[in-house]
Amino acid sequence: MTTKVVNPLVLLSFFVFTLISFTSCENEIDSIGVGIIDNGKFDTDSFKASIISENENVERVKASGIEQYLLGVYKDDEFGKLTGSVVSQLSLPFAGEAYAAGLGDEIVIDSVLLNIPYQVTLDSNDNDASLRYSLDSVFGDKNIEFELGIYELMTFLNILDPNDPTKNNVYYSDKDFEKGTDAFFKGAFKVNPNDTVSYIKRYNADGISVYDTDTIKEDDLKPSIKLPLDKNLIRTIFVDEASGSQFLTFEDFLRYFRGFYIEANSLENEYAHLMSLDMSDAYMMMYFSNTQDEEEGKDLNENGTTGELGVRVKNSYQYNFGNLKSNILERDYSQEKASGENRIYVQGAAGGIAILDILSQEDLDELRSNNWLINSANMHLYVDTNASSSIVPEQLFLFNYDDKEHLTDIFTEGIPAVGGFLERDEEGKPMRYTFRITDYISKLLYSEDPENLIKLGLKVYNPTDVPANSADVIIKEYNWIPQGVVLFDHDESAGDKKLSLEIFYTELKE
Fold first, then answer.
1. Cβ atoms within 10 A of the Cβ of 88, count?
2. What is the DSSP secondary structure assignment for residue 35, as one 8-state letter?
3. Residue 10, pLDDT score
4. Which of 83, 270, 362, 472 could connect to 330 by a Cys-Cys bridge, CB 3.0–4.6 Å?
5. Measuring CA to CA, how many Å separate 322 from each of 87, 136, 243, 317?
6. CA distances from 136 to 120, 130, 194, 276 (A)
7. How confident is the model at residue 333 (pLDDT cuts 50, 70, 90)?
8. Residue 179 CB contacts under 8 Å (≥ 6 apart), including other chains
9. How far apart are CA 353 and CA 488, in angstroms?
10. 3-class secondary structure for 152-186?
11. Using one digit for the tens of pLDDT, what is the confidence trace for 64-113?
């Protein structure tokens, strides 16, 4: 990071003086990564500025067209309860007359499974003989069940904005969606990393006697959520009406069957778990058997002229989840926070942010009255390790709260240099987050063209926070990271862990 200059005359004097006396330099001063030559004519010091913080609940975030969707129930004593449900369109395997024709005669639905892959990490690959995966992005207690229900979505999902058809429609996490009364599935659920195999019984035309059982494994053995859906409800919707106009085109089908409402609810114990899922590979698989006459020349009879008649044949239709999905996030802020009022509570996914007043007018006046070279401006936020929450995020993000824009440093230095990454102590426990906002502070103090004093926002980092280019200045509303952290605020009781902004500077001696 380069040295930041407040007064251009001081900058010129500094470089001229440095060039003239370069050969006589003796000692190097190291101040937060900035090397400054010291020949006895300069002083380096630091200034601690006061910061005032306050908490703000986030009522909603953009929840459609995102990379990750939250499903489940999570609660702790710091952030309350967060419930995540999902709505999604469903696509036909193909439309038109071919759909009904493929179902054939004497069709019996053998099984219907809703399949949603988990987020996993490959733990081992012993020459492809044994693949073992661990589940990623599961928050809370994996052993506590929550209730999961699958319903028909009764609200039509518009791809285009009804108020401006030139734009794509956006759904927010607090949107109310209507669902059907009959459940395709309803029961207790908890994650199962060993759910890699399905056993499908194949039925004769009577729908009672079994003629075979299939063992179906995922190609890569990755575990997934597999929920058996009500075969009678599926038949009524996807088979009995198959020859109607509802299946002529994909658009007709989307208006006929608007999709699934996947709803999570807490059971007796609300301290369950929440999963972050990539729904792009989710689908419903309908396994069915029908009766067909075999083709000529295939499994010939004694005469060798025709195939066998009236054979039960195994089939399946795969209905992928559609492009349009949305997350429903329900928050309960009613409970008191276990760590008390003198703390900062930051959580993603429609959780909470902090608002920071980083400089008082008195501090600002004092800083502007001095001809200082700003070497570095660092903000430290310490984690309250006594807080009960255990879902501490690995990165926080700082932004211009007033204008909902990126800070100057994001473009001049980049996110890695600005920081916000979780630092751990020698025992590996969460310790603090550090932000470097040197460019913003320097421009704020530059007397000829000062930046406006703004409030800063502190949030849980989301991948969408990375600007696409220098013109991408607006902070996006997306956030699907449910992790949260309790930090010490500006109260004096925090001692040396008090929220602070430390500005390191160099000044020329008189």
1. 24
2. E
3. 40
4. 83
5. 10, 24, 22, 15
6. 5, 19, 14, 8
7. confident
8. 151, 152, 153, 154, 261, 263
9. 14
10. EECCCCCCEECCEEEEECCCECCCCCCEEEEEEEE
11. 999 999 999 999 889 989 999 999 999 999 999 999 999 999 999 999 99
Q: Which pair of structure tokens corresponds to residue 420? A: 């916000």
**Shortest CA distance to 84 belongs to which of 96, 68, 72?**
72
**Model pTM score:** 0.86
- DSSP readout, 244-271? SGGGSSHHHHHHHS--EEEEEE--S---
Between CA 354 and CA 456 the distance in angstroms is: 8
- The separation between CA 470 and the C-alpha centre of its own chain, rounded to angstroms, equals 24
Counting every residue written for the chain, the total comes to 510
Question: CA-CA distances (angstroms) from residue 95 to 99, 249, 497?
Answer: 6, 5, 63
Span 175-220, pLDDT tens digits: 999 999 999 999 999 998 878 889 999 999 999 999 999 998 876 6
At residue 181, what are phi and psi to the nearest 5 degrees?
A: -85, -30
Torsion 96-98-99-100 (CA) sign: positive
Contact 220, 117 (CB under 8 A): no
Structure tokens at 395: 């990165």
Strand partners, 139: 274
Distance CA 433, CA 486 (A): 12
Q: First vs last Cα of the chain: how many Å apart?
A: 27
> Which tokens in the block code for residue 417?
């240099």
Q: Are 373 and 6 in contact (CB under 8 A)?
A: yes
Closest CA to 501 of 453, 461, 467, 465: 453
Most confident of 31-40, 41-50, 250-259: 250-259
Among candidate residues 190, 176, 185, the one with its CA nearest the CA of residue 72: 190
- Give whole-number Cα distances, 510 to 42, 44, 313, 365, 424, in Å: 9, 14, 95, 21, 42
Assess contact for 198 and 113: CB atoms under 8 A.
yes
Tally: H helices and E strands in the chain: 8, 31
What are the structure tokens assigned to 206, written together?
A: 């009577």
Asked whether the beta carbons of 111 and 228 are under 8 A apart, the reply is: yes
* Cα separation, 132 vs 117, whole angstroms: 15
